[in-house]
Request: fold
Amino acid sequence: MKTKIALVTGGARGLGFEFCRQLAGKDCTVILTARNEERGQQAVSQLKELGFDVHFRILDVENEEQIAALATDLASSFDSIDLLINNAGVNSKSSGREEDFLKNFKLSELSPEHILHMMHINAVAPIIMTKHFVPHLKKSRNPKVVNISSWLGSVSAKTNGGNYSYCGSKAALNMLTRALAFDLVREGITTIAVNPGWVQTSMGGTRAKLTPAESVAGLLQVIEKMNIKDSGKFFQWDGTEHPW
Ligand SMILES: NC(=O)c1ccc[n+]([C@@H]2O[C@H](COP(=O)([O-])OP(=O)(O)OC[C@H]3O[C@@H](n4cnc5c(N)ncnc54)[C@H](OP(=O)(O)O)[C@@H]3O)[C@@H](O)[C@H]2O)c1
Reply:
């Protein structure tokens, strides 16, 4: 049987790395992408030492030219893409600078540039990524696109102020995922958004409830089971549906 090929964005650390590790452990060929060459290569070496079939490609998801070049490169190196995981994301604390946090989070400090920058990475980039990989996905027998969203993107679950850029960008991702899902059903591609839960990564912090291994194991079960009738749905890591 043909090995499945998975493409993961933001794969050098956190949930992205764990997706690569667990997928490779299930005999997938994994294309691990990262915007930092050194960190990406290190992550790939770590997985290759475990005997996994993992390939590194550089990718900053904000850079459409780089996405297009990657699409051309992968079309000649791999037969198809079976699974695209749009995982790369940032929140208001990602840069580590208090100033950026306030400009993304606090009403009196908000900056349009900061909001738009996060919108680009979290909401727009997954759709632009997918746009470029539709031809590769169409060559798969059971192609799937998974956009990593958040419970913080749920409009109905938002009951407090603040956190404008992150909540807004994940809510936008949810709506863009719905639009994408309806378009891609016509191409035979299943598309969903998922909430990984609160996870112990650099973004989630040490107090988070789930380990990356637990969250990704749950999400991979969701991904394994999903079919075209699930297109446009928003799932939690435990397989239940998330309210919009
Ligand atoms: N952890 C949680 O509790 C939680 C909860 C809900 C949703 N999520 C979502 O889960 C996804 C993964 O988050 P995480 O917890 O693993 O966070 P993380 O540890 O901070 O990792 C974020 C990843 O995204 C990459 N990234 C950021 N901007 C990028 C860009 N422009 N191009 C390419 N890669 C980029 C980072 O690469 P660098 O190493 O180069 O920075 C890193 O690999 C995100 O979409 C996040 O919003 C996480």
Q: What stands out?
A: Residues 9-10, 12-16, 34-36, 39, 59-62, 87-90, 94, 121, 148, 150, 196, 198-199, 201-204, 208 surround NAP (CB under 6 Å). Residues 5 and 48 are 16 Å apart (CA to CA).
